[in-house]
UniProtKB/TrEMBL annotation:
Belongs to the citrate synthase family. One of its GO terms (cellular component) is cytoplasm. This is Citrate synthase. It comes from the Bacteria. The keyword Transferase applies. Gene3D superfamilies: 2.20.28.60, Citrate Synthase, domain 1, Cytochrome P450-Terp, domain 2. SUPFAM superfamilies: Citrate synthase (SSF48256). PROSITE patterns: CITRATE_SYNTHASE. Pathway: Carbohydrate metabolism; tricarboxylic acid cycle; isocitrate from oxaloacetate: step 1/2. NCBIfam families: cit_synth_I, PRK05614.1. GO terms for biological process: tricarboxylic acid cycle.
């Protein structure tokens, strides 16, 4: 076949060149466009980081103002699109609702589908950044049977999202600034992570010159799996299970180490980080702070810390270089903020959106870009004759 390499899972294959995000997995380093994640988490805002990832440079004050204004003007969903949510069962997981509604944007906003037209790309970018929080809040409202609230364009993106999620028409919702700040920072930490599964999916879908909305919808689906973004939900379910069965972390760890079917220490391990995930370090610190500020005393935080302590001093984890990843502590923060477990991966998607857009745009701007089309090593039958039905 002329093939010279096989690399299942793309463990050692670069699928693209990229100037967006740098990771040194052995040193635990993550930078967006050269800026260390720690500095961005401390000093920047999610919208500023979105601008940076997508445009390549930090915005000037007036650029940021222009970008923010545009996003705030596009937060409404088409009224017909709102009825789309009615078609889903009440107990639907919000992730397929989110990806379906994002895909439906290609049907409602047909004037911004051409990947080769910079103005249309800009418009679809703004629409996605503005509308995803509205869609996410409506997916939640649908699940609890509450009315949808319109976005309020005088509010910031995170503030607006929290109000549309937790607010009710008859009760003014008072947004807690500590929660806004913490959620904004968590979105920054999730904003990009080079060629992870969902980003690679966005690139592969987009490589056929599919429109931005459809490509992002593909990424949301890839994110849902428990080995990727779905891990934040899986971590909380794991902690809950340990608590329900008496809180014995040692017993659970033995099941993990014995490789009992389906039992992994969720929120641990990473394809690239063979050292502490720098995002996890920030999240862990934030979990302590935000739970304290909110006056939440969560047994699950103690169980999580207990698991980490056992893992970091255990040969199984040390020899395999398994450390907590970004998903290990995030769920505890989301839970303290009032989000149900099923919304956790939706929050990951809200954070990851600018990264997906940046990669899709970088790919489309490359004149040498080709459609993504991996090869295979065929392992099936060689040629054989078709037998008639009476010969089988
Ligand atoms: N618990 C127990 N053992 C593990 C774990 C874990 N969480 N992760 C990896 N291992 C073991 C694995 O069994 C293998 O052992 P052995 O060499 O004896 O067969 C070894 O460590 C190497 O693991 P791998 O599965 O070959 O590594 P990978 O790079 O293919 O997988 C991973 C990376 C993230 C999918 C995996 O570590 C995992 O399943 N972790 C749990 C799920 C999780 O937390 N995912 C979120 C990842 S970070 C954010 C994101 O991407 O969304």
């Amino acid at each position: 076949t002329g093939l010279t390499t096989f690399d299942g899972g793309f463990v050692n294959t670069a699928s693209t060149k990229s100037a967006i995000t740098y990771i040194d997995g052995d040193a635990g380093i993550l930078r967006y466009r050269g800026y260390p994640i720690e500095q961005l988490a401390k000093g920047s805002s999610f919208l500023e980081v979105s601008y940076l990832l997508i445009n390549g440079e930090l915005p000037t004050p007036s650029e940021l103002e222009g970008f923010t204004n545009k996003i705030q003007r596009h937060t409404l969903l088409h009224e017909d699109l709102k009825r789309f949510f009615d078609g889903f069962p009440r107990n639907a997981h919000p992730m397929p609702v989110l990806s379906s509604a994002v895909n439906a944007l290609s049907a409602y906003y047909q004037d911004s589908l051409d990947p080769k037209d910079p103005e249309q790309v800009e418009l679809s970018t703004i629409r996605l950044l503005a509308k995803l929080p509205t869609i996410a809040a409506y997916a939640y409202k649908k699940s609890v049977g509450q009315p949808f609230l319109y976005p309020d364009n005088s509010q910031g993106l995170v503030e607006n999202f929290l109000r549309m999620t937790f607010g009710l028409p008859a009760e003014p919702y008072v947004v807690n600034p500590d929660i806004v700040k913490a959620l904004d920072m968590l979105f920054i930490l999730h904003a990009d992570h080079e060629q992870n599964c969902s980003t690679s999916t966005v690139r592969l879908v987009g490589s056929s010159q599919a429109n931005l909305f459809t490509s992002i919808s593909g990424g949301i689906n890839a994110l849902w799996g428990p080995l990727h973004g779905g891990a934040n939900q899986a971590v909380l379910e794991m902690l809950d299970e340990i608590k329900e069965s008496g809180g014995d972390t040692k017993d659970f760890m033995n099941r993990v180490k014995n490789k009992e079917a389906g039992v992994k220490l969720m929120g641990f391990g990473h394809r690239v980080y063979k050292n502490y995930d720098p995002r996890a370090a920030i999240v862990k610190e934030t979990a302590d702070q935000i739970l304290q500020i909110l006056g939440v005393n969560d047994d699950l935080l103690d169980i999580a810390k207990g698991l980490e302590e056992v893992a970091l001093s255990d040969d199984y984890f040390i020899s395999r270089k398994l450390y907590p990843n970004v998903d290990f502590y995030t769920g505890l923060i989301y839970r303290a903020m009032g989000f149900p477990t099923r919304m956790f991966t939706v929050l990951f998607a809200l954070g990851r959106l600018p990264g997906w857009i940046a990669h899709w745009s970088e790919m489309n701007a490359d004149p040498t870009g080709k459609i993504g089309r991996p090869r295979q090593i065929y392992t099936g039958y060689t040629e054989r004759d078709y037998p008639n039905m009476d010969q089988r």
